[in-house]
Write a structure and sequence with these properties.
Helix content is 79%, strand content 0%. It is an all-alpha fold.
């Protein structure tokens, strides 16, 4: 059975391995930041008219590729 990041963090603290627990904590923080940034891209896509210019169309294509590449 695979543990979640949070469970691994708690286990590391329980074992007294604070360096490993801190690493898991940082990974958790980065995952939350990744999710927040993905949401910002989605929100921006709603605000940018992709039909307006070629730059807008290219931005939308890049954003769609980014969002599709990392679920």
């Amino acid at each position: 059975m695979q543990l979640t990041l949070e469970e691994n963090e708690r286990a590391a603290y329980a074992q007294g391995n604070t360096a490993l627990a801190d690493a898991f904590s940082r990974i958790i923080d980065l995952e939350q930041e990744r999710l927040l940034l993905r949401q910002c891209i989605r929100d921006a896509a709603d605000l940018i008219d992709q039909e307006k210019t070629d730059d807008h169309t290219q931005w939308h294509a890049g954003a769609a590729k980014l969002l599709d590449s990392d679920a």
